[in-house]
Amino acid sequence: MTSLAAPAPRILVIEDDPILGGALLQRLRLEGFVVELAVDCAQAVGAMHRARPDFVLSDIRLPDGSGEDLYRQALPLLGNTPIVFATAYADVGQAVRLVRAGVDDYLTKPYDVDELVKTIRELLPDKAEPSCAGNGEGFGLSSATTALAADLKRLASRDVPVLLRGETGVGKEIAARSLHRQSRRSRQPFVAVNCGAVPRDLIESQFFGHERGAFTGATATHAGFFEEAGKGTLFLDEIGELDLRLQITLLRVLQDGVFRRIGGRQDMRFEGRVVAATNADLGELIARREFREDLYFRLAVVEVRIPALRERPEEVLPLARLFARQSAERQGLVVPEFDDTAAAALLAHAWPGNVRELRNRVERAVALADGPLLGAPALFPEMTLDRLPVRDHSLADAREQAELASIERALELSGGRLGEAAKRLGISRTTLWKRRKNLGH
User: Fold this and answer.
1) Does domain 10-123 have CATH number 3.30.499.10?
2) Do the two domains 10-123 and 143-305 of this chain adopt the same fold?
3) CB of 55 within 8 A of CB of 120?
4) pTM to 2 decimals?
5) pLDDT band at 411 (very low <50, low <70, confident <90, very high)
6) Is there a contact between 55 and 31 (Cβ–Cβ < 8 Å)?
7) Fold of 310-441
């Protein structure tokens, strides 16, 4: 069997100067990258919604906004993707502010394209395709997600649609990427789509593509999400927000494996795998006739729940240390440590924003750190001193409170059935009983 080469890294270039943009496009393609050019913030954000790039190079001045405007819009879409801004001398101050906010680097125009290529290659390793279990960013760090990591590994080899459920920020895309990475499709594209972010008037074109001249403004042939994914994985995030018209068409594609570009005359085959995700109650949406029941059953051949971060308190400190190391290394800083007040505050926090909130808080603290130790105020600047955990009794108490909250949540979800709750937590019934007794319940 002929092995397939790993997909080339995807570079998003955001540049409104047609001469410079064209030159960068040509050079980076010669270097073996897959390159997409956007000329303003709106096009760039649209490209990131369609598929997360592996590297972003952006001018700091764009027709519809500044580098800071773009970074604010792009941050939720980038994950670990490195971003570098190109700036004229007059805008260096803005570039420096962006670096302090978490941007990887900036280049002063005119810059050497050879140096740019070198920078891209230095920042790309291990960021284009994040792994899941075992790297600290995903699952398997605690009893709450050990079973989840095993389920994802098993499902990776079973080519069926999977529906991932969980609150915002728990890591549904990381789970989807884990399924892709461990599957036979790993060398094929992974295309991530936020279903709620695709404009209604462009939704069919974005999903199915269009032929040149198919409608006003269609000046070139466009490949849609299904075509981009090919034989890889199409990840449909926030599937509950998918327009009802498209739900019908999506159902047909899943059933028959064929679609057609707008204006096209030939059917095209979709041989990829669909992984969907939602934080919504699809049962409620079905009852309100806002989501098709037949599409739900087609997508949820296997349904997997990703637990909230508060249900896996053992993972908070390992994840925080990982994010601190990654952030410090990206910015060329000394990797900081968390003091006892920081550790206690991390364990005591309820994490309504889940892993995404944890990453953001840690990255902000690292960027603003003025020493080798991070305290609670660096992570929770909104908290007053009298609300911060006290060092003398912080760690043990916070850990016990977090563990008890995790147990009670598992029992609530299991209807009070001890055996089922133990299974959710990845421990034995006897261990769960002993832990509850030791915690005074």
Assistant:
1) no
2) yes
3) yes
4) 0.60
5) confident
6) no
7) Helicase, Ruva Protein; domain 3 (1.10.8)
